[in-house]
Design brief:
The protein is mainly α and 214 residues long. The protein has eight helices and three strands, in the order ααααααββααβ.
Length: 214
């Protein structure tokens, strides 16, 4: 009963927030109210090895090399290849497990257009329904990235941007999202998100034009 009441509360808060600024994000995040419960009959499915490999490559491409720098060109070229393949797999219905949906969502999060971020968000919801708890944070981050790239304020404070190689700064955040809500989505409080600007600039050496944060 407590779980059901929490789900209802989440749906009401989510709908209220969306209606306040007219964003076209579907209220699919309400599925997070299941808090990582696995769907019946899904435990015997094996994760897709190709998706797992692409996810590993995606993450490794974002790690600094021996010189302490990220090879941005190599990373972006790899992103394009992985993105095209994930879209093929999505159309063919290859993703079956929570990990499959999570791995695909992470690759879509590193695309370049809002609709891909929205699809990333949708796949996070499916991952959560199937028991993947890592997808909770990514659900928030993909929603934020969709809003940010749609020129709307983000909600959870996961997105940072560097303009003209200047320092990274937290992009505008909509009013009305409580910190307890952020914590339930595995996101930092708004105050801590603002403090992370310095960490981002130290990590990326002063800035790279574009967005950051997942």
């Amino acid at each position: 009963m407590e779980l059901f009441q929490a789900l209802l509360m989440y749906i009401r808060l989510t709908m209220r927030s969306y209606l306040s600024f007219g964003a076209g994000v579907a209220v699919t995040l309400a599925c997070v109210g299941f808090f990582g419960q696995a769907a019946p009959g899904q435990g015997d499915l094996a994760d897709n090895a190709e998706l797992a490999k692409m996810h590993k490559e995606d993450q490794e491409a974002r790690a600094p090399g021996k010189d302490g720098k990220i090879d941005w060109h190599k990373m972006m070229e790899g992103d394009k290849i992985r993105l095209a393949r994930v879209k093929e797999m999505y159309k063919d219905g290859i993703m079956k497990t929570g990990n499959d949906f999570y791995h695909a969502a992470m690759i879509l999060q590193h695309a370049e257009v809002p609709n891909d971020y929205l699809l990333s968000h949708d796949l996070c919801v499916l991952a959560i329904i199937k028991g993947n708890k890592q997808a909770v944070w990514l659900a928030a981050a993909s929603e934020d990235r969709y809003l940010d790239h749609s020129k709307l304020p983000q909600r959870f404070g996961t997105q940072y941007r560097s303009e003209n190689n200047g320092p990274f700064k937290l992009t505008p955040v909509v009013d009305g999202i409580a910190d307890w809500h952020r914590k339930m989505m595995n996101c930092p409080t708004l105050e801590d998100a603002k403090k992370r600007e310095a960490e981002m600039n130290k990590m990326f050496g002063g800035g790279k034009s574009g967005g950051g944060g997942g």
